[in-house]
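Q: How would the structure tokens look for this protein?
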Amino acid sequence: MRRMWFVIVALMLLAWPAAHAVQPDEIMSDPAKEARARDLSRELRCMVCQNQSIDDSDAPLARDLRLLVRERIAAGDSNSQVLDFLVARYGEFVLLKPRFERQTMLLWLLAPLLLVGGGLALWLQIRRRARSGEDLPAPPLSPDEKARLAALMSDDAKSS
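A: Here is the predicted structure in token form.
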């Protein structure tokens, strides 16, 4: 029971900043436009926090960006027009998930290339070991080796 209370309190503390990020005076009167604004806010990076969306951030700059998004939506801009406006103003860094373009190609392809390269290196290492015979079982002991091992084991058992 105590553990369950700890989990509940921890979850409440983790959710608390996100629950209070958007201020009541920012919310649009039209629920459909507000939903669009919230969706766009989740895609935009807070320039202060850097790993939080502006929807989750309490920073003053995040508030300004949320208001700007709502202003552009109220002016009739589509979602892509709002994002294009913010990218033109702040650069690709403002997007939490950058677009796949020539400038961001390395960012998008680096992880899969590293995964494929690691898999290829592992496959080559396994193949090289199999070829060199390292995985073969050890040959059986000769009678002399067995006698020496028995003597060593009996000496070890006596000293213990």
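The chain has a mean pLDDT of 82.

The radius of gyration is 31 Å.

Upvote if useful.
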